[in-house]
Amino acid sequence: MKRFTIFTLVLFCLALPLLAQEQEAKKPDAEMVAMAPPPALNDDLMNWMVGEWEGWTESPMGKSTDWQKCWMGLDGQFLMMDYTSKWEGGDYHGMGAITLSPSGEVLGYWIDNMRTMSKGVGKREGNVVTMEWEDQNGKMTRILEKVSEDKFTETVSWTGPDGNMMHAKSEMTRKKEMTTDKN
Description:
- The chain is an alpha+beta fold.
- The protein has 3 helices and 10 strands.
- Strands 1-2-3-4-5-6-7-8-9-10 form a 10-stranded antiparallel barrel.
- Strand 5 and strand 6 form a beta hairpin.
- It starts with a helix and ends in a 9-residue tail after the last strand.
- 16% of the residues are buried.
């Protein structure tokens, strides 16, 4: 009986590390967890922006007719935007994306048919998003405000080539019937 007890203890001691390895194998790898994307954005203002918009902009270049489409992209991590503006001087086309950092900062990138590549950083306070954008032409401030369920305005300020402040104002209304194409 004594031999059986000693044998059982030795067997138990040998089996413990094997059981621990099996339990460890069932745990998710910490590196794999760190590499998993965060949950999709759950921001009411960004979700509200999803859709197709039409409107106008008044700027030093005149008045334009504008179109914008927004959708959630990259597994819901970014609000993607496609924007077109037509005025007597020509057509402007830009695309970009914004998201929220873990600290709540609004982050964005923008490219356009003027070969501009802009980086934006800002904040959201209620229904207003204020962002500072910087590119090879300098800095600009854009303030987007949700006016109603189907309307937003945007004001833009920047320093012109002559050193004076320039301003533009846009108003966009949600289009009730959306196209199926992202572009």
